[in-house]
Design goal:
By secondary structure, this protein is an alpha+beta fold. It has helices at residues 2-23, 151-158, and strands at 35-39, 41-44, 48-54, 56-57, 60-61, 68-71, 73-86, 91-104, 109-117, 120-127, 138-141. Helix content is 19%, strand content 45%.
C-alpha cells in the first residue's frame, strides 16, 4: 500500500512539475511600430566561438553583446565580427570591423549574420523571419586586432547607432 501511495505521489509531482515549467516560458517582447530590433550572431563549438555584434551604442564603442532596439529608418551600422579559438596554451582572437548600410522597417526584427571560410568572412543584416537581406553582404578578413587609437570612436560617431 505504501508503495502505491508513493508511486501516485511521484506521478502527481511529475505532472505538476511539467505544468509549472510551461508557465515559465516568457514570450518575446513586442517591438514598437517605430522601432526595429537587431539581434547579434553567436555560435560556439568546443574550441571556437564566433560573434557578430553591433560595435556602437549612443555613437560610442560598446563591448556589450545584446539585442538592441533602434529607431526605424536609414542606418549606418558598424559591427564587429570576432572569431576566438581557445587552445590548450593560448587564446587566439581575430576580428574585423564592418560597415553595413540598412533601411530598417518599424516593428520588424533583424539578425546579424555571417558565413566564414578560414579567415574570410561575409557579414550582413537580414530580416529574422524571412531571411531577406536588409543590407549589402560585405567580404572581410578577420585578423589579430591592431591598436586602433580613436578609430573606433570616429567610426561610431560616423554611424547612426
Amino acid at each position: 500500500m505504501k508503495r502505491r501511495a508513493f508511486l501516485s505521489a511521484l506521478l502527481l509531482s511529475q505532472l505538476a512539475g511539467c505544468s509549472t515549467i510551461s508557465e515559465l516560458a516568457i514570450p518575446q517582447a513586442s517591438i514598437s511600430s517605430d522601432e526595429a530590433r537587431v539581434d547579434f550572431y553567436a555560435q560556439q563549438w568546443e574550441n571556437e566561438e564566433e560573434f557578430v555584434r553591433l560595435m556602437c551604442w549612443n555613437q560610442r564603442p560598446s563591448d556589450d553583446i545584446r539585442v538592441r532596439d533602434l529607431s526605424a529608418g536609414e542606418h549606418t551600422l558598424f559591427v564587429i565580427a570576432t572569431v576566438k579559438n581557445s587552445g590548450v596554451r593560448q587564446i587566439n582572437r581575430r576580428e574585423a570591423v564592418v560597415r553595413l548600410d540598412a533601411a530598417l522597417e518599424g516593428g520588424k526584427r533583424y539578425s546579424l549574420a555571417q558565413a566564414r571560410d578560414g579567415d574570410s568572412m561575409k557579414v550582413w543584416l537580414q530580416e529574422s523571419e524571412t531571411g531577406l537581406l536588409a543590407s549589402q553582404v560585405v567580404d572581410v578578413e578577420v585578423s589579430v586586432p591592431r591598436l586602433v587609437g580613436n578609430t573606433r570612436l570616429e567610426q561610431c560617431k560616423e554611424g547612426t547607432v
